[in-house]
Amino acid sequence: MSCIFVGLGNPGEExxxxxxxxxxxxxxxxxxxxxxxxxxxxxxxATVSKVKVGMSSVVLVLPETFMxxxxxxxxxxxxxxxxxxxxxxxxxxxxxxxxxxxISFNKSSGGHKGVESIMKAIKTEKFSRIRVGISPxxxxxxxxxxxxxxxxxKVILGKYKxxxxxxxxxxxxxxxxxLETFLSHGLEKAMTEFN
Length: 195
Fold this sequence. Notes:
Blueprint: E1 2-7, H1 22-33, E2 39-41, E3 46-53, E4 56-63, H2 71-74, H3 81-84, E5 87-97, E6 101-105, H4 113-122, E7 128-135, H5 149-156, H6 162-185, H7 187-194
Parallel strand pairs: 1-4, 1-5, 5-7
Antiparallel strand pairs: 2-3, 3-4, 6-7
Helix pairs in contact: 1-6, 6-7
């Protein structure tokens, strides 16, 4: 089976290592673990790599559009509701604490502009996602979700600190296993093992 994995983020140096680019970072690391060769695809306006994992092939897509236009890079790859079932999108989520990730399917966008854009472009919510938590956590382990536009913007566009990157790299190992499980055994098994 051939799947499409999309890592959401914003293009350009200024957004590198920001929390809003978490999906993009994790997909880049997944590609690195498979020695992916990336190239720019003009038609998709995305950096793309085709890799094989076991018997499955997968197209890795890093949109080079701004977050709220992510759907433009996905639309040419997903032409039907059936096709959407092979799509998995990785993105940052303020409803989860930093260091946690969750696989979900057929859910609302939760206000995430990138996910909203994909839903509009492919006209369905029926695709898989790996939501990666970016909300700050207190020293006691409680999530402190920012409220108000200014506070939210500050968190999502803030850059990861060095120790957070280390933590994220640890999490990325689990995410890589979840992605491989999704490819080899499908969504249900990936959810059972990962969530």
